Amino acid sequence: FVNNQNGKQVCVRDGVAGAEFDKIGREESAGLVFSPDGQHLAYAAKKANKWHIVLDDVIGPEFDSVNGMMLTTYNRSPVKGVLQWVPYTRGGSDCPQFSPDGSNVFYLAQRKTAEGLRYIFVLDGKPGPEYKGFWGTSICPNGEIAYAGINDFDAQMVFNGVPEIPNGGSELIFSPDGKHHAYVAGKRGRESVYAVVDGKKGDPYSLIDNLQFAPDGRVAFNTYLESSGYRVVQDGKLLPPVEKYRIARCFFSDDGKRTVYIGESSQDSGQDQAVIIEGKAAKVLPKASLVWVSPDAQHFAYITREKNATIIVLDYVKGPARWQNFDWV
Fold this sequence. Notes:
Layout: E1 2-5, E2 8-13, E3 16-17, E4 23-24, E5 33-34, E6 41-47, E7 50-55, E8 58-59, E9 65-67, E10 71-79, E11 82-90, E12 97-98, E13 105-113, E14 116-123, E15 126-131, E16 133-139, E17 145-151, E18 154-159, E19 162-166, E20 168-174, E21 181-186, E22 193-197, E23 200-201, E24 208-213, E25 219-225, E26 229-234, E27 237-238, E28 246-252, E29 259-264, E30 273-277, E31 280-285, E32 289-293, E33 300-306, E34 309-314, E35 317-318
Parallel strand pairs: 10-16
Antiparallel strand pairs: 1-2, 2-3, 4-6, 5-6, 6-7, 7-8, 9-13, 10-11, 12-13, 13-14, 14-15, 16-17, 17-18, 18-19, 20-21, 21-22, 22-23, 24-25, 25-26, 26-27, 28-29, 29-30, 30-31, 32-33, 33-34, 34-35
């Protein structure tokens, strides 16, 4: 508990009083914060207009402000029948915060400079790089703690205190086993964005979309090159182009054995589309939209419209006409 004495505040744990401070706990914080296993105690404390985090009676570095933050964790959950890492974000009033297993403690600090406020993410008592802005904190599936620091609108991903590639951070994804991460980095412009996998930058492209991992850890995405149009990149290598069709998206079959493209004859919905497996054997789907492919990539379904009716087609066999909208699951 917190005890007031002689105009100061002290934290008393198991009958033993800690150091004196002008104030313990922030107004929006829970005050005293225990680790999930109850073995560690931390709190924010103010002294001489500077804030510290105290962990098990060890006083951390001083800052002008310390804060909690929104925290994202990832759980394996079925999405359309496939186990994926699904983010869950919760409020962050506690300051500091413990990781779910209690092995890490962290918080966001601020320091005033002549150029303005600087944000510092502090992990296990070690301050990270200073940034002008800060966005997002994630507990990755492998236990790493990641966030994006921002300078002049350019984001930089930081994993366990180690900065990675500048101008990156969109579409952060994880491999099915949780051991690898990937995201898109770079700036908008001709061949100036690239995929980053485990901190390693790939070749530049004008577009990266549908970045994903296969169950075995391979990485693929669809892209655009002025020299050869819409293409698919797998493990850093361009797969053969597909004539007549613009690649709208690519993905791995659920068993991870095949790379599947969805090609469009036009960017307008309701035009012919095609299912292309490993760059060949295109199956043309007339006036299709919302294409699905079975986990083994042997069957396909899509939506089409005839005379204002909506029809589901499975392996070219049309279902009954529906005159109302569908609810999708």
